[in-house]
């Protein structure tokens, strides 16, 4: 009898599913935040990619302060530093015996180092600081060395590269107490360079021998992969798996990266692949005078697109020519740390009085596999069900109503990644309501919503490759910029819906007011030169008329297939700088309003990029227009800068940082960005153009960033134009578009002719202003360019 009971209670855990992470990969997923430090010759030349011909004496930081670098990052919550040892220019930041292009050849730097009682070896100084502050350390060694005369000679160069790896990884004075957790090898070769075959597999073997357990970033299906862009954004669907053969064959054949594949991973991959989300705090990788740090709004988007999608966030923080991190960089890092700490300090799911239930518990073993395990803080326990059960529900009863706006969920990835489809619901007013839905979970998935109030949360798993294992659930109230607050630019005056003057039967909700009664009105008076209406778009919403001073100025349609809160519904043209009345009237279905936002800066205006999206053929230039709306009184300037996405500056486009000075009364300026014609086969790539730092009391508006798509071929660009135009031509009989299937050369020629006229007509008819969310009229298709 006793033996039988003991046998029944011994429930085996699920078997691993697919590839599983190494301990080094697991550690990195759990660390979440890491820092790149791009420092070297480029810091002093102002370039991102050097040519290897630089005079070593150009490198001369006057007050190298690696303690400041490491302590700042440690205090800001970063768990590892990846230090540039040698970039593509070949200049080594350590005293290498294999090249003269290195720090020991900079006589000024060596003299300064001696005066400061330092070694004159930057990697050694960083290592001392990492050891002092117990910071994990990684090492970047570019496989591309534009200075080396051996580059292009297969055997000689690979031996040279391995000698330099050994110099660093095999010397105990480097690393955190001699230990490196990561080695970074960029895949760049550069257009027109001598063909160089890299011995990736031998390099991997050498690294494992010198630094056992260290993870390796490379384009060759190693333990860490590029996420497919330099914007720090993992895919909405993101698997920590790749197919080794596919990835290596792609690199061998094309020499580049399959960006979309890397961004999303492979659900059927045969190796575990951690997707590192790299992005720079500034517009370039190396420090340049005048560069400013990304805003907290930018960093918020990146955080939830990296850590919030189960991948590490690798943020580049470049020191300046003095050898220190400038203060506004330090301030932004501290602000990010404070926001993370205060947002995730209290897990409502781990509070006292919370109870858990599940649709099924594996073998009825509540202790080892019960739902309460998701809040016990252990990496070793989880909730799961019986083998073969691919759907299920986990319910968390908070006991009393709580306010929250973020929910984090983690799979037990030590046994593989599994979940393919799921959602979160919260209980409110007697029924379950959707909080958000997603596909993959992985190491961590954080879903956000505007603040809701509820006593119960339910996680529904609709699909999984094998029985799901849920290790962690966290329910939080976000702090600061992590909150799903306004999309509204800083500096606009706010009139919340609670202060509107209304007629009819408006209802109050947490986001503002709504009505379903045609003819109901909401109005307010204001002083200023431009007004914006912010509210909710929804599949049950319809058209409203907008009046300024009793004159109808628009009829936006607030319909959207998906419900979204705090969206820009309408904006006025530039108004006279005086008192006005704005009024909205429901025309059909329903509307929900959050607030009116007013530009009132004495006519200084608001800067925006004219369109959200631009396109260009590979090797051509693209011209963007920056406009100054809502007034142009006095001179004002705004900084225009580019930042990488899947396109990399210096490789796919020419980086640009420039100040645009608008004279009194000037409302428009154009900026041209060059793309690079290279031999890579990459498919279509994207980068970003941004405007920041307005002066003279002007503001930056809703359209502060545009995406530029570089099309691999003119036909790719043409098909994009076709997709764009199909929304515009539904009710325009003057434009006729034929979608042709190219089956022969003659048909392709016809398509090319059509493309010429369609693109010309598109450019002629293209609207001048596009906004970020649903600014449409009743007569116009609901398409956002």
Can you describe what's shown?
By secondary structure, the protein is of the alpha+beta class. The protein has four domains: 27-289 and 296-343, TIM Barrel; 348-482, Galactose-binding domain-like (Jelly Rolls); 493-599, Galactose-binding domain-like (Jelly Rolls, Sandwich), CATH 2.60.120; 718-767 and 780-785, no CATH class. It is built from 15 helices and 37 strands. The strands form seven sheets. It has an eight-stranded parallel beta sheet with strand order 5-4-3-2-1-10-9-6. Strands 11, 12, 13, 14, 15, 16 and 17 form a seven-stranded antiparallel beta sheet that branches. A hairpin with a 2-residue loop joins β20 (507-509) and β21 (512-515). α4 packs parallel to α6 and α7 runs parallel beside α8. It is an enzyme of class 3 (hydrolase). This is alpha-L-fucosidase. GO terms for molecular function: alpha-L-fucosidase activity.
Q: What's this model, at a glance?
A:
With 785 residues, the chain is of the alpha+beta class.
CATH superfamily of the largest domain: Glycosidases
Q: Report on the biggest sheet.
A: 8 strands, parallel
Our count of domains comes out at: 4
The total strand number stands at: 37
Principal-axis shape: globular
Derived from helix and strand composition plus strand pairing, the structural class reads alpha+beta
Strand percentage, roughly? 25-35%
Number of helices, where a helix is a run of at least 4 consecutive DSSP H or I residues: 15
Unreliable segments of 5+ consecutive residues: 1-8, 727-785
Determine the N-to-C terminus distance.
72 Å
- Tell me which CATH architecture of the largest domain applies here: Alpha-Beta Barrel
Strand order of the largest sheet: 5-4-3-2-1-10-9-6
Quick check: average pLDDT? 89
**Radius of gyration, taken over Cα atoms and rounded to an integer in Å:** 28 Å
Query: Portion of residues in helices?
Result: 10-25%
CATH topology of the largest domain: TIM Barrel
Assigned CATH class of the largest domain = Alpha Beta
């Amino acid at each position: 009898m006793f033996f039988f009971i003991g046998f029944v209670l011994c429930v085996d855990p699920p078997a691993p599913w697919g590839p599983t992470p190494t301990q080094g990969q697991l550690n990195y997923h759990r660390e979440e935040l890491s820092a790149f430090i791009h420092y070297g010759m480029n810091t002093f030349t102002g370039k991102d990619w050097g040519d290897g011909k630089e005079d070593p004496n150009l490198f001369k930081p006057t007050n190298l302060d690696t303690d400041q670098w490491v302590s700042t990052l440690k205090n800001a919550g970063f768990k590892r530093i990846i230090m540039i040892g040698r970039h593509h220019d070949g200049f080594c930041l350590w005293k290498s015996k294999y090249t003269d292009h290195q720090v020991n050849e900079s006589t000024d730097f060596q003299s300064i180092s001696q005066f400061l009682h330092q070694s004159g070896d930057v990697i050694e100084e960083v290592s001392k600081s990492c050891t002092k502050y117990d910071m994990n350390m990684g090492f970047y060694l570019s496989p591309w060395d534009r200075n080396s005369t051996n580059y292009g000679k297969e055997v000689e160069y690979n031996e040279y590269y391995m000698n330099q790896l050994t110099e660093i990884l095999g010397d105990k004075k480097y690393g955190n107490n001699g230990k490196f957790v990561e080695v970074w090898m960029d895949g760049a070769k550069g257009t027109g360079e001598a063909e160089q075959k890299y011995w990736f597999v031998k390099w991997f073997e050498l690294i494992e021998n010198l630094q056992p357990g260290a993870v390796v970033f490379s384009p060759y299906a190693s333990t860490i992969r590029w996420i497919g862009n330099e914007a720090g954004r993992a895919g909405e669907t993101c698997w920590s798996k790749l197919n080794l053969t596919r990835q290596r064959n792609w690199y061998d054949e094309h020499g580049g990266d399959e960006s979309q594949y890397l961004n999303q991973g492979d659900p059927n991959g045969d190796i575990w692949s951690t997707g590192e989300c790299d992005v720079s705090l500034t517009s370039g990788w190396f420090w340049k005078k005048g560069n400013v740090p990304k805003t907290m709004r930018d960093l918020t988007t990146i955080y939830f697109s990296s850590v919030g999608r189960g991948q590490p966030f690798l943020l580049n923080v470049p020191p300046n020519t003095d050898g220190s991190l400038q203060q506004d960089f330090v301030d932004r890092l501290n602000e990010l740390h404070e926001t993370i700490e205060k947002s995730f300090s209290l897990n409502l799911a781990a509070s006292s009085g919370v109870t858990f239930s599940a649709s099924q518990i594996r073998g009825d073993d509540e202790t080892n596999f019960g739902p309460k395990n998701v809040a016990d803080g252990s990496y070793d326990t989880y909730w799961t069900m019986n083998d073969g059960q691919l759907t299920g529900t986990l319910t968390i009863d908070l006991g009393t109503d709580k306010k929250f706006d973020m929910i984090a969920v983690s799979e037990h990835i030590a046994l593989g990644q599994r979940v393919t489809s799921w959602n979160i619901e919260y209980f409110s007013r007697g029924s379950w309501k959707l909080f958000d839905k997603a596909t993959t979970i992985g190491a961590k998935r954080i879903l956000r919503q505007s603040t809701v109030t509820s006593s119960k949360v339910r996680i529904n798993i609709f699909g999984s490759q094998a029985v799901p294992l849920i290790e962690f659930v966290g329910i939080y109230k976000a702090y600061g910029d992590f909150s799903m607050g306004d999309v509204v630019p800083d500096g606009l005056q706010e009139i919340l819906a609670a202060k509107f003057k209304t007629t009819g039967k408006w209802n109050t909700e947490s986001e503002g007011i709504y009505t379903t009664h045609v003819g109901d009105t909401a109005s307010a008076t204001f002083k200023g030169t431009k007004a914006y209406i912010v509210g909710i778009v929804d599949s049950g919403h319809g058209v409203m008329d907008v009046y300024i001073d009793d004159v109808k100025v628009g009829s936006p349609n607030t319909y959207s297939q998906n419900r979204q809160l705090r969206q820009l519904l309408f904006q006025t043209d530039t108004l006279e700088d005086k008192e006005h009345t704005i009024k909205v009237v429901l025309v059909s279905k329903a509307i929900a309003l959050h607030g009116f936002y007013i530009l009132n800066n004495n006519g200084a205006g608001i800067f925006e990029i004219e369109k959200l999206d631009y396109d260009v053929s590979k090797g051509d230039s693209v011209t963007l227009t920056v406009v100054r709306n809502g007034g142009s009184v006095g001179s004002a300037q705004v900084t225009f800068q580019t930042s990488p996405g899947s396109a990399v500056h210096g490789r796919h486009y020419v980086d640009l940082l420039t100040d645009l000075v608008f004279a009194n009364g000037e409302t428009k300026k154009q900026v041209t960005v060059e793309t690079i014609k290279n031999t890579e086969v990459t498919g279509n790539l994207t980068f970003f153009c941004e405007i920041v730092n307005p002066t003279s009391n002007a503001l930056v508006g809703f359209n502060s960033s545009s995406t530029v798509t570089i099309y691999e071929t003119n036909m790719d660009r043409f098909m994009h134009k076709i997709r764009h135009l199909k929304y515009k031509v539904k009710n325009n009989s003057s434009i006729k578009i034929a979608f042709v299937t190219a089956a022969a050369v003659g048909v392709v020629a016809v398509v090319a002719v059509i493309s010429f006229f369609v693109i010309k007509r598109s450019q002629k008819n293209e609207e001048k202003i596009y906004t970020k969310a649903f600014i449409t009229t009743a007569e116009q298709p609901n398409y956002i360019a």
